[in-house]
Design a protein that fits this description.
The protein is α/β, with parallel strands linked by helices and 264 residues long. The protein is 42% helix and 14% strand. It is built from 8 helices and 7 strands. Strand 1 (11-15), helix 1 and strand 2 form a beta-alpha-beta unit. Bound molecules: NADP nicotinamide-adenine-dinucleotide phosphate (NAP) and D-gluconic acid (GCO).
Length: 264
């Protein structure tokens, strides 16, 4: 059974894996035997990430690439194919959020979130799928969100993008399942990373951020998730163990989506 979860000999690309959820997923895939490639945009993020991976004994290939730029993505994928090998596992993780009330949000801001959180997954998947077809197999994991299912104030662009990413996941499954490509999503709950740091920032008087208390009360597990909580689910969806799982979103949320909340 253990062999089912082995990724040895596989080449994985995790986008936006300089830190946060992407870094933890790359670490997990490496521990299962995969060769790791990742990208980000920032020079400092890259240098810090290469040191962090090295400190964990993980041999990685880092690439500067803005996932919204199709030419940069195509070049990166070609470079990976030449330097490391044809990509077996793609994790579309890179993403941003802008928390602005919709009527105050500029079209440019809305478009930027859609571009990075949705269109980029199309661009990178489109670049990687031909190699997977040639190889006769492939795994694509899209990092969705609870906002693939729910909305909340100020995250209209992000929810629209993550809702679209859920359907792109299902469509890649539908269009490429016949080539033995499985495309699934992971829907993290509220995870403690730089992206959610503003929601956990203690108040000036030292008290807990109200959103921090709100999320812990709404989550049956009673806590924020950590990037490490996503490591096992990512290995499962990247491995042979999930060969008959396709078009699904695996929510890793401590139960928050199932829970109406405690009576006040
Ligand atoms: P994060 O800490 O902000 O990290 C985002 C990563 O994406 C960084 O490495 C960033 O590096 C990279 N990135 C952003 N835009 C990029 C672009 N255009 N091209 C290439 N790389 C880009 O975020 P996170 O919390 O780890 O979230 C990772 C993913 O999980 C995102 O898709 C997010 O929506 C999703 N998610 C997060 C949570 C949560 O609670 N944290 C929950 C559900 C889903 P550079 O800025 O250097 O490029
Ligand atoms: C927010 C948070 C969420 C999380 C995550 C939840 O502002 O509500 O950033 O969107 O990032 O996507 O699954």
């Amino acid at each position: 059974m253990n062999n089912e979860f082995s990724l040895s000999g596989k080449v994985a690309l995790v986008t936006g894996a300089a830190y946060g959820i992407g870094f933890a997923i790359a670490e997990a895939l490496a521990a299962a035997g995969a060769k790791i490639c990742f990208n980000c945009r920032g020079e400092k993020h890259m240098q810090d990430a290469l040191k962090a991976y090295k400190d964990k004994g993980i041999d990685v290939h880092g690439y500067f690439c803005d996932v919204t730029k199709e030419d940069e993505v195509q070049n990166m994928v070609r470079q990976i194919e030449q330097e490391v090998g044809v990509i077996d596992i793609l994790v579309n993780n890179a993403g941003i959020i802008k928390r602005i009330p919709m009527t105050e949000m500029s079209v440019e801001d809305f478009r930027q979130v859609i571009d990075i959180d949705l269109t980029a997954a199309f661009i990178v998947s489109k670049a990687v799928i031909p190699g997977m077809i040639q190889k006769g197999h492939g795994k694509i994991i899209n990092i969705c969100s609870m906002m693939s299912e729910l909305g909340r104030e100020t995250v209209s662009a992000y929810a629209a993008a993550k809702g679209g990413l859920k359907m792109l996941t299902r469509n890649i499954c539908s269009e490429y399942g016949a080539f033995n490509i499985q495309c699934n999503g992971i829907g993290p709950g509220y995870i403690a990373t730089p992206q959610t740091a503003p929601l956990r920032q203690p108040q000036p008087d030292g008290s807990r951020h109200p959103f921090d208390s709100f999320i812990c009360a709404k989550t049956p597990a009673g806590r924020w998730g950590t990037p490490e909580d996503l490591m096992g689910p990512a290995v499962f969806l990247a491995s042979d163990a999930s060969d008959f799982v396709n078009g699904q979103i695996l929510y890793v949320d401590g139960g928050i989506l199932a829970y109406i909340g405690k009576q006040p």
